[in-house]
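User: Can you help me understand a structure? I only have the sequence.
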Amino acid sequence: MTIKIGVIADDFTGSTDIGCFIAATGCQVVQFVGTPDESLNSSDADALIISLKTRSCPVQQAIDESIKACRWLKANGCQLIYFKYCSTFDSTAQGNIGPVTDALLKELDSHFTLICPSLPVNGRTVVQGHLFVNGQLLNESGMQNHPITPMKDANLIRLMDAQSSGKTGLLDLVTVQQGANAITEKITQLQQKGFRYAVVDAMTLEDLRQLKPLLKHFPLLTGGSAFGQIIAETSDHKISQISQQYPSAGGRGVILSGSCSVMTNNQVARYQQQAPTLALDIEQCMTNPQYAVELSQWVMQQSSTLAPMVYATQPPEQVRHMQEKYGIEQVSYAVEKTFAHLARLLSEQGFNRFILAGGETSSLIVQELGTNKLEIGGLIAPGVPWVRDLNQNNRWLALKSGNFGDQNFFQHAQELCHD
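Assistant: Let's start by predicting it. Here is the structure, written out as tokens:
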């Protein structure tokens, strides 16, 4: 059975993340920045992805934008809607994962769905409803220090119940590994007991594949990029050539890093030994309207082989200090706006390769650049492809979620560029 998949991603790095996982199955993928105003001209795509910036915006805004995306995807032939959020379940007690899931269930006239953030290839696993990152509980993995959505609990059932209107049950690992019949029986039991969602235990991709026979019966599914890959595997689509396109080495590149994750801190520290880097002055972001111009001048003066980097990546204690002084939302907004303004200035000066770290940072920059349609290119690291701006054929972007990639990510991304 051919199933056209419609993906609603709550941030831009997450959308390219799931895009490369779905494309790896041979699906033809088209990715949009925001919900398009017009219907799709071509129906050839097996999966349509809409990138939103709804992970940490006000709850009602997240609901409204997600419903708009859902209606557009359904109108353009998508039979199954997938709500994609981060494999570290980035959210707060107010949302936005729970409220958006509830709204989509109502929109699709459905009463039950699965919660499945597991991403085994990047060390995200779920056991007894608890989310682990490389063997550490979520709330001990560094995510407890996230500047916008600090994760203080690893129990997905508690996290979901706190921000949603229904009850959350567990599809435990023993049941999952017993296969489709046992899973179906367990889901039926949960539904009969009034549960609206089931957190799925999964340690490996094979655990997730146990769910495949059931997935076509769900109007809505939710989770990370690995589960999206499994959904794509259920569809009898025509196999497309998996993209191995990488940017040309011509033009100029820059790295803009707004993520404060543990891995990005390590990646920035490594890159400081390899190329010119400049730390963002958050005081200047807050008070100097010409700061982005000054930063652009510094970037353009650099002549190293590797791209210069401007970074806001800082240790947790420094982030907390600035947040206490100015406020969490104010600091985040000022940093993102500075990066977005800087990216636009550099684009106007001919920069055509942008390596961006951090979901919030990436989202605002992509919007500022006027990008609205992307093509998935070759892989840099699991969950991070190069993507080509279909409005500006020579513009390429790499949108990296905070904890993705190894320590040499920034250098490796550039090594893949060809002459």
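Now, to help you interpret it: The chain has two domains: 5-233, 252-415. The CA atoms of residues 116 and 223 lie 4 Å apart. Let me know which part you'd like to focus on.
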